[in-house]
Every structure is written in C-alpha cells, then in structure tokens.
Amino acid sequence: MMLHKEYNEYEICIRNKLPYSVFEKEFDCRESVIVWICSKQLERKNLTEETRKFLIGMQYENEKVAARFRYKLEKNISTVNNQIPEKYCTVEKIAEANNISRATVVKYALFTRALEQIGKKEPKLVPKILSGQYKISHKNVLKMAELSEEEIKRINRKIERNPGDYMYYKATRNSINTGRYEAIPTEILIGPSVKDMPKFDPDAETNSLILTIPSWQSTVERMKRSTDFSTVSSQAKNNLKKALLSLLCCVNGVLTEMEDK
Residue 183's pLDDT band (boundaries 50, 70, 90)? Predict the structure, then answer.
C-alpha cells in the first residue's frame, strides 16, 4: 500500500524537528482505514491513470470487507428479502464517490487484484506500472498476473536492462504471449521508433480535460456534503470564492471560444 502524503510530511517534521499537529480519527476496522487512505490519495492532482485505477480498486475491495463488518455489527437492522440495505451497497458508494459507473468500479477491482498478484511475484514491477513507466493495457495486466514468478521476473529484468522514461508493452509482448524470452531482439526493448510515435491528435487536450472535469465535480460535491460552512473561517471562504470565480471565468472563456469557432 502506498504511503499517504501526511505520513511523509510527518516523517519530514520528525527528521527536521519541525512543529506539527495531529488529529485522531476512529475506524471500525482495518479495512475502513485503507478505504480512508485511498479516498485521501484520490484527492491528489498528480495521480497517473494507473494509480487512480489501482486506488479505486483497492478502495472497493476493502470497502466490501468493511461493509460486511458493519452489517454484522448492526445485524438487527431491518432487511427486505434478506438483502443488505442500500447504505451497504458498496459498488454504488464507490462509483458515486469517484464519479464512475458500477461496471468501471468492478473493472478497476480486477486491475488491483492483478497488480497485487504481480507484486507477490515481482514487487519491483508494480511501481513501474503504477507510475506509467511501463505502458501496458488493462487486459494485458490481467494476463501478466497469471504468469509464473520466474516469467514475471524475467520481464522486469528486461525492462531494467533498458532504462528509459517509458517501456511499451509491445517490447515485451512476446514474453507475455509465448514465454519465449530470449527470442526478443534486444533492439526492440529500447522503445518505439519515430514511425511508431502517435500521430498528432487535435482532440487530445480536449479529451484529457473531459476526463479530468468529473474528478473536480466529485471533489466539489464531496466538500459540499462534508463541510459546515458556518464553522469555516471568513478567509477560507473568501479564498474558495475567488478560486471558484476564477474557474467560472475560465469555463465561460472556453465556452465563448467554442461558440465563436
């Protein structure tokens, strides 16, 4: 499990003898702690898509366990047709929190399980996938999880022998599909050639923004639900108002630009 940034800040404060404050938070079980850590990590703006998928999958897997635990504690609660009440519906809860569909939550959970299996066989490979250094599709992550420990270790050794900003799945595809590791020409491990580079996509920036906006909406909605503005300082409210107005101005500018074109 990745370290939460507050833990890193705590370590820095201890090392440099800086003052710090802490707050206590109660949890009903260990899995609830992991769910909370995942939710805090998902608020970060610099997550790779792979890390985001992993965190949502981890959040879902642990929320399932935590929900069953809470249900057992409240087993006298009324049910309809022996079904767990709506407030325990884990998929809906995670999907709403991350502004994605139920099917996507389940898909990400498979991704998380696969990475955990890969991590048991070769821990060094998982950070490469989560950071985006090793470019591999969801489908092929699931395939890789089924390989033996030695097969996965060989793939990672080939990646490490050819350091670079990125390593593409194409470079180790034969290793995954056939297991014939030594049949891969060394030059293919260097990365894509110029002719393999993606062509200019005029929609790339627009599509990137489309994928990013839902996370902003989710963050704002979560803040609205959890914040009592009567207890928030005037300075904080003014700063938030300025930030929101600035964002609104930016959005209106984009809308105007699209209408003009």
Answer: very low
